[in-house]
Amino acid sequence: MASAELASPALSDALVILGAAGLVIPVFTRFRITPVIGFILIGILVGPYGLGRLVFEHPWLNHITISDPDSLEIYAEFGIILLLFTIGLELSFNRLWEMRRLVFGLGALELLVIGTCAATFLSMMGQYWTGALALGFALAFSSTAIVLPISGTSSPVGRAALSMLLFEDIMIVPIIFVLGAIAPNADAEGWEGLLTTLWQGGLVIAAMMVLGRFALPRLFGQAARTKSPELFLAASMLVVIGSSLATAAVGLSPIVGALIAGLLIAETEYHGEVEAIMDPFKGLALGIFLITVGMSIDVATIWENLGTIIAAVVTILLFKALVTGILLRLMGARRSTAAETGILMASPSETTLIVLAAASSALLIQPGTAQFWQIVTAVGLTVTPLLALLGRVIARRVEPVPELPPEDEGEARVIIVGAGRVGLLVAQMLSAHKKPYVALDADPDLIESAKREGYRAVFGDAARGDAMTRLGIDHAVAVVLTMDEPVLVQRLVTKLRNEHPDLLIVCRARDVEHAAALYRAGASHAVPETLESSLQLSEAVLVDIGVAMGPVIASIHEKRDEFRAQIEEEGALDYKPKLRSSTADAAA
């Protein structure tokens, strides 16, 4: 009985967190709003400054509020560690080397210029220079945990944001050491500690890179051979936690170790499986972090000091957006990219709270000053998703999407469903042969990007409403389905074939089994991407290692015939499907 009573607060907190995730994610996703806002609002509601204030008057509220907010901090920190780990998985050492100009050029400029200018301004406002320096660089940080899930890492905005955030994450520890060294009660040990951390950290990172190159492929290879998802998950957790603890043990930030672990695994063939198995944990842990941000917001205090807090938040946002945008333009970024990235990177960071705490403990700033800027930071974190929306709107205004010449509404054309990598390549080929087309996609960012690059693209959802009718499906030459969503593609094929029996429908299939299902649904042609890429890779390697072209082409014909027979059998077809797509095969 006693153990049940001891466990109840933890179970109650877990129920609140899991209930929040189950409520926030579906609702906000349904309305195409980032769940970030929802998690922060949940934190405000269930935290000590929300319903938690009423627990003593209404004890039943204890079951729907967080009883011990401090106990969540370790999970919030783990969420940020997992985020940096997955960022490392999406990168590689080659890509990071290619980004060195952005990371150590743009990233360094952004942090130094914003930090120095903010420190100068605060010093002019009466803050002593050491405290102004601490506050300036604390406010210069931007939120890795919120910005990157919004921007991604592949778009121009995402790459620019990633480069600046990576440099900021590298600089966390040096900045905290410097603050300790310039504290009123500090001595030479502060600078000695920084130098010690740097050389020890360098040795640890070098050891991780050497050991990781040899040990990680063997570790994950053994886990893969057991075919046990549990063992694969355990190996992934072992690597990320062990790397984080290794860098933390020598004074570096644990997120540096997590990032390096991700980069090392990205060089192995198991990075896709690791990314997939870790993604749910990252999402939940980040949700906990955002709830802790919401719990730190005292709405009553904000209301009492509303004017001052709004002025501070707006000043910080405008200043950081302006400086970041100007720096991006000087580095050659487009106006739209500079505007959107500058606004997105304008808010403070979760790291700001860490630096503020370090500055306060070093007696560089007063506790009241630290509390004020903590509130400003929490408000800034809350509005970051709104800044992302504002950035997209302003980016469209400063660099409008170019207008393409009007087309003949009655002209027969090809409709390409999906404006991603594959869809735009199909559009390029059609344009090269002067064949009219239009690309359709439900992602507004993809459509805008395609239009900026000169493609004819429109927004719409092929699976809903009359989007295909508006594009002239009744007199279309063909429909090309390029999405990497097997179930949706199959449904669209069935719908299109029922409504348009004579329409040419060409589909991107994931594999031979998916191609067979698409043929059964009514596709005219289904091209299995794994099959064709494998055959072309085989052709390239066989020819380059000295095998004559004739036997190579003959063997590819033979292999393709095997797959034709397999698709014919699995699809219950009364004809052999066409699978001719390689140039060598066509030439034959």
Automatic annotation (TrEMBL):
GO biological process terms, semicolon-separated: potassium ion transport; proton transmembrane transport
Keyword tags: Antiport, Ion transport, Membrane, Potassium, Potassium transport, Transmembrane, Transmembrane helix, Transport
Any one annotated GO CC term: plasma membrane
Keyword Transmembrane helix (UniProt): yes
Membrane association type: Multi-pass membrane protein
A Pfam family: Na_H_Exchanger
InterPro entries per record: Cation/H_exchanger_TM, Na+/solute_symporter_sf, NAD(P)-bd_dom_sf, RCK_N
Listed name of the protein: Cation:proton antiporter
Species for this entry: Qipengyuania soli
